[in-house]
Amino acid sequence: MTVHVKSYAKVNLTLTVTGKEGGYHTLDSLVTTIDMFDRISLSKRRDKRITVEMHGRESESLPFDINNAAIAAERYVERFDTCGADIVVYKNIPMGAGLGGSSADAAGVLRGMSKLYGAGSERELKVLADSLGSDSGYLLSGGTARMTGRGDLVEHIDFNGLLHLLLLVPKGGISTAECFNKFDELGGAAEHTTDGAIEALKRGDLVALGKCMNNDLYPAAAALNPDVEIACRELLGFSPLGVTVTGSGSAVFALFENEHFCRWAKSRYRGKFECIHVKSVNF
User: Fold this and answer.
1) Does residue 81 have an active-site annotation?
2) Domains recognised in the chain with CATH numbers
3) Quick one: residue 173, left, alpha or beta (phi over 0 = left, psi -120 to 50 = alpha)?
4) How many of the other CB atoms lie within 10 Å of CB of 199?
């Protein structure tokens, strides 16, 4: 038996660092999934072994022992005492870009294993996912949500609108751990904007939403990868409603009023970075 799942990327419309807990930073973030995804195929095995093949986005050399797709499958087998799986991941989400690709793959594998073996309630899968990354629990269901705590507290927001975003992806990526260390070194945090962003989203006021877009990790990300600042400046040149970095970078994105303006900006981009038009999505 083989099942196929899509694991969707996310962007952080806001991200405020609220403190530390147990050695980890706590956050307050408005997030949404976008229509960029990895494809994952999972086939049943008769033993408990897990195999993983990676394809695309230079993921082929990713070591098994730090591959979240492999770790998620192994923990699923251990937790529910099932047989293993042969897993193939076709990467489309850029790695090290703050788009949640690793967490998305972990969430996708957990959903796929549950389809294969029928074990694991939503709550049980969420507990497993939260142990694999700050975004994994949220990415089990995706959509638009407020994440707090270490990312494990997820409050889904009823939003049926559509956000059109232009994404620039500087090469090199940024280590999440290094970015948080740099944040601690630089000190300081920006104004909390998540409440205002959520209110604007519920009103359908994209202009106000754009003004609330903010990420406390931007200075740290820009210090670690100067292309982050260049990409932000390039996007600002198209007069979008808002621009910010997602996660710990290196990807940055701009919010536009509608699809027409977003496609217009994409058609005129002449910079060196990969440029992708994405939309918010529920799944």
Assistant:
1) no
2) 2-156 (3.30.230.10), 164-279 (3.30.70.890)
3) left
4) 13
Residue recorded with tokens 């059109």 = 164
Mark whether 115 is an active-site residue. Answer: no
pTM of the model: 0.95
Q: How far apart are CA 119 and CA 34, in angstroms?
A: 28
Q: Structure tokens of 78? A: 């251990």
Q: What angle do CA 8, 76, 4 make, to 5 degrees?
A: 40
Q: One of 28, 38, 130, 135 is an active-site residue; which one?
A: 135
Residues written for the chain: 283
| Structure tokens given for 257 | 């009023």
Handedness of CA 14, 17, 18, 22 (dihedral sign): positive
Annotated active-site residue in 10, 91, 126, 182: 10
The C-alpha R_g of the chain, in whole angstroms, comes to 18
pLDDT digits (tens, 9 = 90+) for 5-40: 999 999 999 999 999 888 889 999 999 999 999 999
If you average pLDDT over residues 216-241, what whole number do you get? 97
Q: What is the DSSP string of 156-188?
A: E----S--EEEEEE-TT---HHHHHHHHHHH--
Q: What residues contact 225, with CB distance under 8 A and at least 6 apart?
A: 170, 172, 173, 174, 249, 250
The pairing of beta strand 274-279 with beta strand 164-169: antiparallel
Question: Residue 107: is it exposed, middle or buried by C-beta count within 10 angstroms (0-12/13-18/19+)?
Answer: buried
Both tokens of residue 166?
């232009």
